[in-house]
């Protein structure tokens, strides 16, 4: 089995849905991730989503939205929200396609700037080709982030590393760069992988940024 991580960017700024646009534009609310999304038989969508910030403002937006049938929250400054709402037609088509396609979506789905979403699909190359075909008629742009063989024991940030970054990380661990106290320098890591120290430094900063971003979430 393979994985394909993509970034879905709405063609209309803010989100895939008017509710998403409103939430993305609200500075007091941060949309963190979607932990479950499902197209129900009645055509509505059920989601389990994570958010943070001003819970009261979030509830005000949800209560005022004509597309929301019902919602329920748990938590305060960081919360989980179960909601059922009417999707737009593009969203409904995407979820209907996903339900019948030979592909699995790995959760959580992470939110990014401008309402973008980073999604990892599990399947084979034929299923991934179908994803690109579906994207051609959808209301979003699709950007490939990473692809490769799927390891269910790997954390998402290790799968997001390039092959070169993975080599640098492995070398840094082997030579003791991350031991306490530190037993190696960037020059030692560079010698182990055959790269310039400045290049290794750049790789290590990018790796560390991904790791700390994952831990902060």
From TrEMBL:
Alphabetical keyword list? Transcription, Transcription regulation
Task: State the InterPro entries in the record.
Answer: HTH_bacterioopsin, HVO_0513_N, WH-like_DNA-bd_sf
Q: Does the keyword ATP-binding apply?
A: no
Q: Where is the HTH bat-type domain?
A: 161-213
The reply to whether Transcription regulation figures as a keyword in the UniProt entry is: yes
Give every HVO-0513-like N-terminal domain span: 17-150
> What is this protein's record name?
Helix-turn-helix domain-containing protein
